[in-house]
């Protein structure tokens, strides 16, 4: 699938189809998805845990580390999209609304 053809709804459908084909839906409860999301986010944190700020800025320079970071980002996003699907949240609308609230809450000087 090429980048230009990707959108949130398509990715959510692919994830749902993947889970359905393996009969994983009973396990995809909000609680389990949040737990999995937390674990994957922690795996992403683990990559950066002992890096200096400068090293963390260059993490994508090493192909092996870049691959690990990319995979963990994908895992985090996958579980977040599945959670949104299960809870009926449009993640882009939620983010847009949150940015609006933050702009009002923290106005630019």
Topology:
Layout: H1 8-21, H2 30-48, H3 53-57, H4 63-87, H5 91-105
Helix pairs in contact: 1-4, 2-4
What does this structure look like?
The chain has 109 residues and is mainly alpha-helical. It is built from 5 helices and no strands. α1 (8-21) crosses α4 (63-87) and α2 (30-48) runs antiparallel to α4. The longest helix has 25 residues, at 63-87. 6% of the residues are buried.
In short:
With 109 residues, this protein is mainly alpha-helical.
Question: Key features?
Answer:
mainly alpha; 109 residues; single chain
Q: Uncertain spans, ≥5 residues at pLDDT below 50?
A: none
Strand content: under 5%
What order do the SSEs take from the amino end to the carboxyl end, as H and E?
HHHHH
The percent of residues in helical segments reads over 70%
């Amino acid at each position: 699938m090429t980048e230009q053809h990707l959108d949130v709804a398509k990715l959510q459908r692919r994830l749902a189809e993947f889970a359905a084909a393996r009969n994983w839906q009973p396990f995809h409860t909000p609680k389990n998805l949040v737990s999995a999301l937390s674990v994957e986010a922690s795996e992403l944190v683990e990559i950066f845990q002992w890096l200096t700020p400068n090293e963390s800025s260059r993490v994508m320079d090493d192909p092996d580390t870049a691959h690990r970071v990319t995979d963990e980002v994908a895992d985090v996003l996958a579980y977040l999209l599945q959670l949104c699907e299960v809870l009926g949240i449009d993640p882009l609308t939620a983010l847009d609304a949150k940015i609006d609230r933050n702009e009002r809450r923290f106005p630019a000087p």
